[in-house]
Amino acid sequence: MPSKKRPKLREDMAETARRVFLESIGEAPKTLPPEERTEKNPEAVRRGRKGGKKGGAKGGEERAAELSKRRRVAIARKAIKARWKKPRSN
Known about the structure:
This protein is an all-alpha fold. The protein has 4 helices and no strands. The protein is elongated.
């Protein structure tokens, strides 16, 4: 089972107050709200998605290319039997 992501911790009130103070006196750069931020991970942009494809996992096309025709037919027949074995609902 995949692990659940832990929720991000919210910033402490003292940290927020200090950040706002430093921004107001010009000591720290102003932070934008999340919807206005434009930074993107260049590696994720290059891959086209955050996680990218898994290196070791094979897709169905790769798996099928490795199987012989006889084995593919056997797998297909087994799938057909399993499908038609299920009771039909009206």
